[in-house]
Amino acid sequence: MKRILLLGSNGQLGSDLIRAAEGRADVQITPLCRDDLDVTQPDQIVATLGEHAFDVLINGTSYHKTDEVEANADQAVAINAHAVREMARACGEANARFVHVSTDYVFDGRADQPYREDDPTGPLNVYGSTKRMGETLAQSVHDDVLIFRVASLFGIAGASGKGGNFVETMIRVGRDKGALRVIADQFMSPTATADVAEILLTAIHEDAPAGIYHAVNSGQASWFDFASQIIQRAGIDATVDPIPATEYPLPAARPGFSVLDNTKISDIVGPVPHWTDALDRYLSAKGHTASVA
Q1: Hey, how many other C-beta atoms are within 10 angstroms of the C-beta on 218?
Q2: One of 63, 115, 127, 213 is an active-site residue; which one?
Q3: Contact (Cβ atoms closer than 8 angstroms) between residue 241 and residue 174
Q4: Average pLDDT over residues 68-83
């Protein structure tokens, strides 16, 4: 049995990791909260983690409020980069695996096909830059690092600090206003945290080789496509109209195309469900009326 320490246990992904582990006999997860380890203080991480016995450390923490991060680069560097380096260092001292969750925003969006793990990166915003820095620093201090890039997450617990996730926001606004205007020229990989949790735990069980993996649901969509399917499958009486990103300016630049290719991880854990399948399961779990298109 693998003894796993989990950071970020109260978030969307952390909550689903705990839920997924309950049905498995091959892992035992111990969640650490902020009172146990404050990731905003990187210099305390090695000592604190040294007090625990573990085989795997999963880092689900991040300063991920993309627009807010633009004005708080120092804090983002501390949490998304320096803290990650210290976690990896602590894993090296404990002879443990380090599993780190990263993002599709490490790419610049200029590709015309889904990004593979070895494609050149080029973050457009501070969040993506600090997450890429964290990837690099972790691999520089420890050999046994698994980096899982995820994207456009939706999970039962909602997004910590964001007031819910995109799915819930679309349902709420659709019900309240009866009309949505959603960006149609940014494409990504909508992904359920429940499926990411299964991918991570299976990869750990299968002793996946160290390296970078894209852990996303299969398929791709624009935010408009995603919103349209949410409204339709949840049975909401609302219209969804497409708009260009220029009509919804934000402090942080977003890539126009950040779809991730999940072939590499699929070869280890098996086929990953399509995002529409993941959405139906999410809507059912949340008690929303779901109907297959």
Answers
A1: 20
A2: 127
A3: no
A4: 96
Secondary structure of residue 241 in the 3-state scheme: strand
Q: Please count the residues of the chain.
A: 293
Residue type (1 letter), 258: S
Return d(Cα 93, Cα 142) in angstroms, integer: 9
Residue 9 pLDDT: 87
Give the pairing type, strands 221-222 and 187-188. Answer: antiparallel
Assign 271 to helix, strand or coil. coil
Nearest-angstrom CA–CA distance, 97 and 146: 8
Q: Is 127 a known active-site residue?
A: yes
Quick check: 197 pLDDT over 90? Answer: yes
The beta strands (E) that lie in the chain are given as: 2-7, 27-32, 56-59, 97-103, 145-150, 153-154, 179-183, 187-188, 191-192, 211-214, 221-222, 239-243
The whole-chain average pLDDT of the chain stands at: 93
Instruction: Give the separation between CA 91 and CA 113, rounded to whole angstroms.
Output: 35
DSSP 198-209: HHHHHHHHTTPP
pLDDT over 70 at 292, yes or no: no
